[in-house]
Amino acid sequence: MDVFESLESTVRSYCRGWPATFDHASGSWLFDENGRAYLDFFAGAGALNYGHNNPVLKRALLDYLERDGITHALDMYTTAKRDFLHAMSDIVLRPRQLNYKIMFPGPGGANAVEAALKLARKVTGRQSVINFTHAFHGMTLGALSVTGNSMKRGGAGIPLVHATPMPYDNYLDGQVPDFLWFERLLQDSGSGLNEPAAVIVETVQGEGGINVARAEWLNGLARLCARHDIVLIVDDVQMGCGRTGPFFSFEIAGIEPDIVCLSKSIGGYGLPLALTLIKPELDIWEPGEHNGTFRGVNPAFVTATTALRTYWQDDTLEKDTIAKGDRIGAALTRLARQTPGVPMTPKGRGLARGLAFESGALAGKVCAAAFERGLLMETSGPDGEVVKLMPPLTMTNDEIESGLGIVADSVAAVASA
Ligand SMILES: Cc1ncc(COP(=O)(O)O)c(C=O)c1O
């Protein structure tokens, strides 16, 4: 570990909870340099929906590299990009009757968010953005300004402005009708609310603690945005690409956001790729107005295209994800019932699941106990109080059962301590 501790910045974080040196991985398993196996209930924070080194994606990638396919090309036209655009259109957008232009904003999720915010401001001529309590949108300054976590915000070193938080679904425990406060502020010329350019929302807040917005809440939000001519941005960086079941997490609400941010699993193989999907009438960028060196890593186009062709030509994966998610949800409900001394609340949708504890300390202990038993899980939520279960969508039912067994053992160990 010496070189990591002596040379790598103190900003490193995941390695602190998982003090192993990982060497290789396959499917739902990682192996450390001593050959110890770890089952993955983390999936690269949502970047590995199809598992590690998925053999179908790996074959396509190796073939592409072997034939000296283009690796780097900024935003030049390439055959790999053409294939990807066709796959997005034919397999994802057209069957869902969605009409979006596709922008490549940079390699990661925060790039997709920055581009979305910039474009909404350019289109509307307004500066202010509405975000939600416990939101997470990334670490760059624009994305951080619409993120809730105070520790992360503190890292900015400057005031984070031009964003106003509103209560996320159920933030007020159902005591207030949806959007009462938001709509009142919009309607009242004396409210002091700056007229918003955009609303940015996650349908399920991953980093915020696996908070699930109801379909009717999302639908109400879309209608509110339409009424007030506000650009609706859905940040599907973590919950898109099938994490909650359907390809886009907002499909259950029957809405069509103005802008959609995708990253993480869109590349399919854990390679960096991000998209900002834009309704055609909003695509008013000047050429090069949003630029960047890594806006389309071509090997990621290859694995992304292969993932779409392999997993999204029919609804098998979607149905599997929902069934597996229900199975995990039921197991967590049973576990909470069987451990009366330790209050726990199961949360989630599809294969984005969580178990909320009363404190971050407890949730952290459960994750540490799971790591000792060979299972990787992280915590989320403002105080790290939610144990987050996000296996690859391709995890088998047997693997899920064995992971859930470790979760139960870990909770029991922490409860008895
Ligand atoms: C919803 C959401 N948006 C944006 C981001 C930022 O993505 P990245 O870390 O690739 O910049 C994340 C990362 O976890 C996320 O969960």
3D architecture notes:
This protein is an alpha/beta fold and 417 residues long. It is 38% helix and 16% strand. The protein contains 14 helices and 17 strands. Strands 4-12-11-10-7-5-6 form a seven-stranded mixed β-sheet, with helices on both faces. Helix 4 runs antiparallel to helix 11 (298-311) and helix 13 crosses helix 14. It is globular. The protein starts with a helix and ends with a helix. The mean pLDDT is 97. Pyridoxal-5'-phosphate binds at residues 45, 108-110, 113, 136-138, 202, 206-207, 235, 237-238, 263.
Task: List unreliable stretches of 5+ residues.
Answer: none
| Major sheet: arrangement of strands | 4-12-11-10-7-5-6
Q: What's the total number of strands? A: 17
Average pLDDT figure: 97
Report how far the terminal alpha carbons are from each other: 29 Å
Using only CA atoms, what is the Rg? 21 Å
- Biggest β-sheet description: 7 strands, mixed
State the shape. globular
Content of β-strand: 15-25%
SS-based structural class? alpha/beta
Tell me which ligands are bound: pyridoxal-5'-phosphate
Number of helices: 14
Q: What is the helical fraction, as a range of percent?
A: 25-40%
